[in-house]
Specification:
Helix content: over 70%
CATH class of the largest domain: Mainly Alpha
Number of helices: 15
Shape: globular
Low-confidence stretches: none
Order of helices and strands: HHHHHHHHHHHHHHH
CATH architecture of the largest domain: Up-down Bundle
CATH superfamily of the largest domain: MFS general substrate transporter like domains
Distance between the termini: 37 Å
Structural class: mainly alpha
Number of domains: 2
Length: about 375
């Protein structure tokens, strides 16, 4: 087998981002089927869905440990096989307990792969000598869009969900087989630590990641509610805000590496934070749907390159090796996705959704202004 070249490693890294994005989006259309099959009400379904997040949060630190000991390739293959095996189970799990267990395994596989693919990306980007992280993250978004479209189209043909999941898993397995020979096998030096509590610059980067992911989680979970309840948009059109955000983010990431190369990481984060904050403000106070969608699109453009730039900074800092730093930052960021919507709910309960969205805009301004203080 020929040795991987820099170009094949870059393409394989894009595939590593595409696969978990594809898999996560494949689960979303299955939720109504799972709810009906297991007889869950909305409240109990919400508790069962927490199993996915719990699996991810527990697996991320362990992924860094195993990547340090066995290399990125071994961990990504193992975790993606967990995803491939558990996805069909999500389509047939007969009870809340079995569904929760399958979601825990699925979430652990996706979360661990999310962590290790960023370690792989940091190494490949560093070897290339130019910004590449935004482009890698764009392929996660592309995977999500294609996964959601493919699942929806196949289910619309009235194929049974278990068969659709087997077909999707087979496609993912083929892409995995093509990509895995080109993934990195780097291991931590003998005697190097495999776990450490984040500190110094890594902790600072992690906090900024938490804020960035909190903003993304706010759009994911609250934009439709905000449009419907505050701005009186019909529920059938309330999803347009998230659509505008997701499309804008994907396009901005495809061109993001050039922007980061021209601006530098710190200025790119500052500009992104200010644009995203302006987008939140516009979305919050817009008098009509068209302006609100423009605001959500601006949030997508602003947030697009913040997280990739922060991961690149984590790969360049010297306080902790990337096998320790990336899992810590990924875990803090994912905690922002999980905790952010709940925090917004608490603020909205105590005040209003308008106040909650305005608070996120302020947090994004502070994120941008704080980026220069985090020196990698």
């Amino acid at each position: 087998m020929p040795l991987p070249t820099p170009r094949t490693q870059q393409h394989a890294t894009r595939a590593a981002f595409f696969l978990p994005g594809f898999a996560t989006a494949a689960w979303a259309p299955l939720v109504p089927f799972a709810k009906a099959r297991t007889g869950l009400d909305e409240g109990t379904l919400g508790l069962v869905l927490l199993c996915l997040g719990a699996g991810s949060l527990l697996a991320m630190p362990l992924a860094g440990v195993f990547a340090a000991r066995h290399g990125c390739r071994a961990v990504m293959v193992a975790t993606l096989l967990m995803v491939l095996a558990s996805l069909p189970l999500l389509a047939v799990a007969p009870s809340p307990w079995t569904l929760g267990l399958a979601l825990f395994v699925f979430g652990a596989g996706v979360g661990a792969c999310d962590c290790v693919m960023n370690i792989q990306a940091v190494i490949v980007e560093r070897d290339s000598g130019r910004p590449m992280m935004s482009g890698f993250h764009a392929f996660y978004s592309i995977g999500g869009a294609i996964g959601a479209a493919a699942m929806t189209a196949l289910l619309a043909l009235h194929l049974p969900p278990w068969l659709v999941c087997l077909l999707v898993s087979a496609v993912m397995a083929a892409l995995l087989a093509v990509s895995l020979p080109h993934w990195r096998t780097d291991k931590a030096p003998a005697g190097a630590p495999v776990f450490a509590v984040p500190h110094g610059v890594v902790l600072g980067i992690g906090v900024l990641c938490f804020v960035a992911f909190l903003a993304e989680g706010a759009i994911l979970d609250w934009s439709a509610v905000f449009l419907h309840e505050v701005q009186q948009v019909p529920s059938s059109r309330a999803g347009l805000g998230y659509m505008a955000f997701a499309i804008a983010m994907t396009v901005a990431r495809l061109f993001g590496d050039r922007a980061v190369a021209a601006l530098g990481r710190h200025r790119a984060i500052l500009l992104g934070g200010l644009i995203a904050a302006a987008g939140f403000a516009l979305a919050t106070f817009a008098p009509d749907l068209a302006l609100a969608m423009t605001g959500y699109a601006l949030v997508g453009v602003g947030c697009a390159n913040i997280v990739p730039a922060l991961f690149s900074m984590a790969g360049n800092q010297k306080a902790m090796p990337e096998s320790l730093a990336i899992p810590a930052i990924t875990t803090l960021g994912y905690a922002g996705i999980l905790a952010g919507p709940a925090l917004i709910g608490f603020v909205a309960q105590a005040s209003s959704l308008v106040a909650a969205f305005a608070a996120v805009a302020v947090a994004l301004v502070l994120l941008g202004l704080s980026a220069r203080a985090v020196r990698a």
